[in-house]
Amino acid sequence: MKILVAVKRVIDYNVQIRVKPDNSGVEKDNVKMSMNPPDENAVEEAIKLKDSGEVTEVVIVSIGQEKCQDTIRTALAMGADRGILVKAGDDIEPLAVAKTLKNIVEKEKPNMVLLGKQAIDDYCNQTGQMLSAILNWPQGCFVSELGINDSAITISREIDEGLEQLEIQLPAVVTCDLRLNEPRFASLPNIMKAKKKPIEIIEIESLGVDTIPKVKYLKVEEPPVRQGGVMVADVKELIQKLKYEAKVI
Amino acid sequence: MSVLVVAEHNNVSLKSSTLNTIQAASQIDKDIHLLVCGFQNDEVVNQASTLEGVNKILQLNDEIIQHQLAEHVSQVIINLSKNYSHILAPSSTFGKNFMPRAAAILDHSQISDISGVISPDTFIRPIYAGNAIATVQSLDPVKFITVRTTSFEPVEIVGGSASIEKISLNLEGIATKFLDRKEAKSERPELGSARVVISGGRGLENGDNFKLLNEIADKLNAAIGASRAAVDAGYIGNECQVGQTGKMVAPELYIAVGISGAIQHLAGMKESKIIVAINKDEEAPIFGIADYGLKADLFQALPEISKELDLLNDIAK
Amino acid sequence: MIENQNIQREEMSYDVVIIGAGPSGLATAIELKKLNPETSVCIIEKGSEVGAHILSGNVFETKALDELIPDWKEKNAPIKTKVSMEEFLFLNKKNGMNIPTWLLPKSLQNHGNYIISLANLCRWLGEQAEALEVEIFPGFAASEIIYNEDGSVAGIQTGDMGVDKEGQPKDTFEPGIILKGKVTVFAEGCRGHLGKQLIKKFELDKNSSPQQYGIGFKEIWEVDETQHQEGKVLHSVGWPLDPKTYGGSFCYHAENNQIYIGYVIGLDYQNPYLSPYDEFQQFKTHPKISKILKGGKRISYGARALIEGGLQSLPQMHMPGALLVGCDAGTLNMPKIKGSHTAMKSGIIAAETIQQHLYDKKELSVFDTIFKNSWLYQELYEARNVKPSFRWGLIPAMIFTAIDQLIFKGKLPFTLNHLHADHETLKLAKDSKKIDYPKYDGQLTFDKASSVYLTGTNHAENQIIHLQLKDPKLPISYTLEKFDEPSIRYCPAGVYDIQYNKEKDESEFIINSQNCIHCKTCDIKEPSQNINWVTPEGGGGPNYANM
């Protein structure tokens, strides 16, 4: 069994985001970048399945600039077997990403594709669902538990009300929640070994994918600064305000 | 053209997220249709029929779609899409599950989590966990949108009178079998999605005092959160931490008790609709962003709040 | 560190293992590869990436880089903004007096230098090193020194990952490994935690004056175009600091309407109520400064201890199996307020030493000879008397410095020694005057929490606290009692706090280690030397972008 894991290179979650003065986007120069956190869960899960013998090969794919190789290497150091970088511009939207991944899936023929449930930059939460749609595969989204039995997987999905359990026939697309596992650390010797693992580089143009955006980002601004409200005199006044003014209790 | 809103429900009752989504829809177009798909969902349709602003309800009542799996719901939407300029669903785990799927099948993009409507094709949405706000324009003929519910007031549940149209479709079988759905075990709502959150900080002084929050949380059906300082001090577990390195929350009501308002904490809750701060230090930065501030000793204020809430409930009865 | 001694640790060997990817470590690596591409070199770096823990003013003198990478311009080094204008201000509360630049000692003249981000220069140096096949491993902390049986340094052990608060392995436990080098180069920067151990073990400082430190703050501001003069360098002394305390400000106009503004205060200050952070915040409200910042936006903040002792405090930099370079030893030139070019030069000297050691069977002590014959030694020698003269107070020191530097060009026939280590200088709280600092206005001045937020600092949760107390009772029974717990004030990140526990009816010392920005001030200034800074899990700490 073979798993394809898609990973995205994003601004590190510890970095304080700064909007560019010209409102064209956010500042990325010299900013620490790393693997999108839920994608790490996807990588971890694939490697766990490989450790347990259910899976024979884990292939990592990332789409973006040359530097995405670093992100792929991180996954290789965690234990994945090889990588594919589809070289593309910085901001291609989820639909184009899904179409690109479909191309790779058709080439690699994995039994399952794992992705993070959403990226912490654009916050779209779309790519996995879109990929499964255009592959006409079933989807399992926001997964916090995953078990394989023969040709199917059983999953628990994190939903607002609690958990939903599904049995899904393979091949399938699964998007991973942070609760799925705790990603391992890559050891130093494994980072060394990862430097020698192969990464295939493909130009996105060669795949014939339409990457023209269908959603235009007109501007990116800082969120409005929240203003302080009123001081209330006592608890009674507070409760009255919450009940009759704000209407939240 | 009209706007189709996909109702979130559990075949028994309509979820409030639907009301906020209808509000967003009303800012796009006045002709709003509501899709209620499920099984034995008459009661939901009943509730929906009086909603303010809804002209028509499309009811699909079919056992095959009882669990509203994404593969099915997206099929329904695709079938209906030619009649609509916009299709909206709440940006909950429900809406996020099927909306991108439906859009992609029609080779459309999708716009996630809008927090404002500028025009029928231009919307505002938070990115980078709300640390930046993007204005985006859709170039697709049909706009597939999920709606950040806390950004839109709910519509009134009475005052409307929608016509009801029953629809039936030949839905394809899918490769997914529903096994089970478990409501969260905890009696408290989940921190990330609770309507009300009450959080404690260092001011609570120790772990035992966190129990003072429980009583109020019970009365408001609130989740319990904490500042990093309180977690670091061992008052409460990691899973309760709200902030940059903890959970990001955006409830309708956020009550910060004994939290000074370190910016790491503010980053995790500043998207809340109403913020209440209770602190004895009037210089605490949290007051700078709170809608309602109360300078008080929390050990006196908390029991009082509890009492006042009881009074309110008595009146309601 | 995990108690279990039975952990199997992998071992890797290199010709040279370098600890720290700052200017000195990277220069060592690059020069080694230039001298012999066959020498195997690795660098480990505790920051999440190269540059993440680098913070510096910085007006850069290219002297050492010209030697290391002569074609740095063609290779597009991030060194672009030439110093075009200089000002030196003597501030009092309301006003500032300009000191004409011709009156300034040569060491304070910056013609020909560049305003840079040292973090970005290190990122670039890292790329140059990797192109020469130096292996760089960011995100790994060197936590222990490994010794050979004969007592010489064999290498280091990286920190264990995935250990919980109590020291027990978590599911993700990944044991640290042993990295052995024929020579190990310690380039951790000021007050490296391994360097500190080596200096003690090998008595490297037995012939030196006590080391002197400062704490430096830096903020990056985006300011209004009309207030920005690219290439301008402004320094000041005086207000708000009292005349007994050593320190001053810098304000550099960099590219893209950005200003690098900062403050340095000697850690030999005496008043336990002094708060270096608040001195810096207050400084920004001076009319000469606030007019530049007004309407601008603060985009970065950081702080780091720096080493000021100079030549007379410099320890011996070689020992069996290892070398100590850059600020880990203390090569900063204080009157110039520059340590980057000197750190790099010390790395180049280290590389020459190692080359002779590996291939010509020379002892590592050959370092001393090469060092003494270098411009680095000459430069540090001439600078040596400036900092110690400041114990006489600001005005006498400035007069002395003018004579020493302008007339004698640093060649006065005596050397002033440093008298005390910085942790010995605090006066008792009862003998000291409390200082009332103004409230933060949220426009020019900010609280510590908002500042730390900008550093992108994080430490994985549930790990051993990396700020260790030798005696857990001491902060309350001694430091609080005698000095009113100065750590609350000297820590630039709000790590330390005292909280009163009602139930136990006693005060508790709180360590918010998650906030730590790795500046090392506590390790230096704590009066009883009770706080020991050790490395947290690799990758923790600040994530500085353009500092």
Question: Could you list some keywords that capture this structure?
Answer:
heterotrimer; A: 249 residues; alpha/beta; 6 helices; C: 547 residues; alpha+beta; FAD/NAD(P)-binding domain; eight-stranded mixed sheet; seven-stranded mixed sheet; 15 helices; 24 strands; 24% strand
The gyration radius over C-alpha positions of chain B equals 21 Å
CATH top level label of the largest domain in chain B: Alpha Beta
Helix content of chain B: 25-40%
Count, helices of chain B = 8
Give the uncertain stretches of chain B in residue-range form: none
The rounded distance between the terminal residues' Cα atoms of chain A is 53 Å
- In CATH terms, what is the fold-level topology of chain A? Rossmann fold
Tally of separate helices of chain A: 6
Most extensive contact: A-B, 75 and 83 residues
How would you portray this structure in words?
The complex is a heterotrimer of chains A (249), B (317) and C (547). Chain A is of the alpha/beta class and 249 residues long. Chain A contains six helices and 13 strands. Chain A is 27% helix and 31% strand. A nine-stranded mixed β-sheet of chain A has the order 9-8-7-10-6-1-4-5-11, with helices on both faces. A two-stranded antiparallel ribbon of chain A has the order 2-3. Chain A is globular. The mean pLDDT of chain A is 95. Chain B folds into two domains: 2-167, Rossmann fold (3-Layer(aba) Sandwich), CATH 3.40.50; 196-316, TPP-binding domain (Rossmann fold, 3-Layer(aba) Sandwich). Chain B contains eight helices and 16 strands. In chain B, the strands form three sheets. Chain B has a seven-stranded parallel β-sheet, sandwiched between helices. In chain B, strands 13-12-14-15-16 form a five-stranded parallel β-sheet. Chain C has a domain at 12-71 and 120-164 and 173-208 and 315-384: 3-Layer(bba) Sandwich (FAD/NAD(P)-binding domain), CATH 3.50.50. The longest helix of chain C has 21 residues, at 340-360. The radius of gyration of chain C is 22 Å and the shape is globular. The chains are: A alpha/beta (249), B alpha/beta (317), C alpha+beta (547). Chains in contact: A-B, A-C, B-C. At the A-B interface, α3, α4, β7, β8 and β9 of A face α3, α4, β5, β7 and β8 of B.
Give a brief rundown of this model.
The complex is a heterotrimer of chains A (249), B (317) and C (547). Chain B has 317 residues and is of the alpha/beta class. Chain B is built from 8 helices and 16 strands.
